[in-house]
Amino acid sequence: MALAQHKLNLGDYLVWENAQPERHEFYRGEAFAMVGVRRVHGMVSGNLFAALKSALRGGPCEVFTESLKVQVADEAVFYPDVFVTCHADDLRTEMVFRHSVLIVEVLSDSTQGIERSLKFAMYRRIAELREYVLIDPDSRSVEVFRRNERGLFELHDFTGLAEMELASVQLRIPLTEVFSGLEPTPAG
């Protein structure tokens, strides 16, 4: 998130945002311009979207990308890199989703602090959310925070393993597929 541009209520933000040429996230009355992404970010997001789209085809859930909004209460609207919803209301909406079961953020140096803290804290308020995934394309780290039977999020670190498991959508994805198209990691 960058510096705040406007002080708005949620309704005003949604009207204003839909008229903007660029995207802005919303948090407690303020709109924040989205920063551009690097090629590796787009590659990882696209690879994950493609794997999820193929796996979910014909089922009750749909996968979406960063061009669509996820709302958390009346306090926040974010553009996750990839998210999955199975909720009937979300499957009928055109712009604002509220019931994601899986949210993925691809990290960068400029965004990882906010994605690990503020966004994770907000996303945990979504009752349907089962997994929050953080992927760092530079270090090839994959962290899956999964809600347990007590409602707490536990870390499942898939860094360095052959595949990651997304239990929320009953899917295993090879990490070679997630990082396909990126240069090999340096030896050592």
TrEMBL record:
Gene3D superfamilies: tt1808, chain A. InterPro entries: Nuclease_put_TT1808, Restrct_endonuc-II-like, Uma2. SUPFAM superfamilies: Restriction endonuclease-like (SSF52980). Residues 12-162 form the Putative restriction endonuclease domain. CDD domains: DUF820-like. It holds the Pfam family Uma2. PANTHER family: GLR1098 PROTEIN, RESTRICTION ENDONUCLEASE DOMAIN-CONTAINING PROTEIN-RELATED. This is Putative restriction endonuclease domain-containing protein. It comes from Thiomonas arsenitoxydans (strain DSM 22701 / CIP 110005 / 3As).
